[in-house]
Design goal:
The protein has 321 residues and is an all-beta fold. 0% of the residues lie in helices and 57% in strands. The chain has no helices and 29 strands. It has strands at 8-12, 22-32, 37-42, 48-53, 58-63, 68-74, 79-84, 90-95, 100-105, 111-116, 121-126, 132-137, 145-150, 155-161, 166-171, 177-182, 187-192, 197-203, 208-213, 219-224, 229-234, 239-245, 250-255, 261-265, 270-274, 280-285, 290-295, 301-306, 311-318. The chain has a 5-stranded antiparallel beta sheet, with no helix packed on it. Strand 4 and strand 5 form a beta hairpin. The model is unreliable at 1-21 (pLDDT under 50).
């Protein structure tokens, strides 16, 4: 676990109503994790970062106070998506090969239960109150599905068929709606969580892979790796209002509390940063085949997995103003 040569990039931008006149981003570390690191989850207390390692069947635990790997534990076969309950007591991980969700004790890292879901589960999200989890399943045919899991009983209680290759899932801040993008049919499904029915389907860009909400929860940003753009969806009117061209194969996306947008561009091996009005601030290199990005709870760091490097790249974010 070595520290990479520090780089310093200064990007200047002036945006009305946006308190960011200069952003300093420095690469401060690269941490060796398991084989083919994919998705990230930060504990509710902000102290630990969990990395799913797809080809080594394990999760790496990073201490965010020291930026050191402190633990590794078994997480089932081909762990991919990961989410942590709001109480911080359970970790839920998708196992793509065998169609399972591993329920893991977040303190002891012992497996508590296996939950059978659909074929090839990809990602998972948990409701704000911690009562339900929602799993996207690629499926092995033309139709994918979403599974609804009751967390208290740790059981799959319902499922809903949707489009082709559902990839990412996000829950509204109110916990009443579910947003799912389907990479094979290029659409966004809006689902009523109470009735478990589709409210509407919205056509977006090609091969959508990742999503993130704006700080106010009224706008959804979707990274479309096939069309090299971001779909911006108004969640009040439930329509796509704009597409923004970005770099090659945008895969994952994260938004800070001040509205700054971070996009992982897998095809160009970069992390690009944008203002809330989509003025580009800067881009930095982030290793070979980056997959996911997460931001520390205090907004001081960005973390990016690089699948072909088997590394977690750590960047310091500073606003001198």
């Amino acid at each position: 676990m070595g520290t990479s040569r520090s780089i310093r990039i200064v990007a200047l931008v002036t945006v009305a109503l946006f308190n960011l006149s200069a952003l300093y981003i420095s690469k401060v570390d690269q941490i060796k994790v398991g084989k083919a690191p994919h998705y990230l989850a930060i504990s509710p207390d902000g102290r630990s970062l969990f990395v799913t390692n797809f080809f080594s069947d394990e999760i790496s635990v990073i201490d965010l106070r020291t930026h050191k790997k402190e633990h590794t534990f078994y997480a089932g076969v081909q762990p991919l998506g990961i989410s942590i309950t709001p109480a911080g007591d359970r970790i839920l991980v998708t196992n793509m090969r065998n169609g399972l969700i591993k329920v893991i004790n977040a303190r002891t890292y012992e497996i508590m239960d296996d939950i059978k879901v659909g074929d090839m589960p990809s990602n998972i999200a948990i409701s704000p109150n911690g009562s339900e989890a929602f799993v996207t399943n690629y499926g092995r045919g033309a139709v994918g599905r979403v599974d609804f899991i009751d967390i208290a009983s740790q059981r799959d209680v319902d499922d809903l068929e949707i489009g082709i290759r559902p990839m990412a899932v996000v829950v509204s801040p109110q916990g009443d709606r579910l947003f799912v993008v389907c990479g094979g049919s290029n659409d966004l499904y809006v689902i009523d969580i109470t009735t478990r029915k589709v409210i509407t389907k919205i056509t977006i860009g090609q091969a959508p892979d990742g999503m993130a909400l704006s700080p106010d929860g009224n706008t959804l940003y979707i990274s479309n790796s096939g069309s090299n753009d971001i779909s911006i969806v108004d969640l009040i009117d439930l329509r796509e209002i704009r597409r923004v061209q970005v770099g090659s194969n945008p895969f994952s996306i994260a938004v800070s509390t001040d509205g700054t947008i971070f996009v992982v561009e897998t095809g160009s091996n970069q992390l690009s940063i944008f203002s809330p009005t989509w003025d580009k601030i800067t881009s930095v290199d982030v290793g070979k085949h980056p997959i996911d990005v997460a931001l520390s709870l205090d907004g001081r760091y960005a973390y990016v997995t690089a699948e072909l490097d088997n590394r977690l790249h750590v960047y310091s974010l500073d606003n001198p103003d």
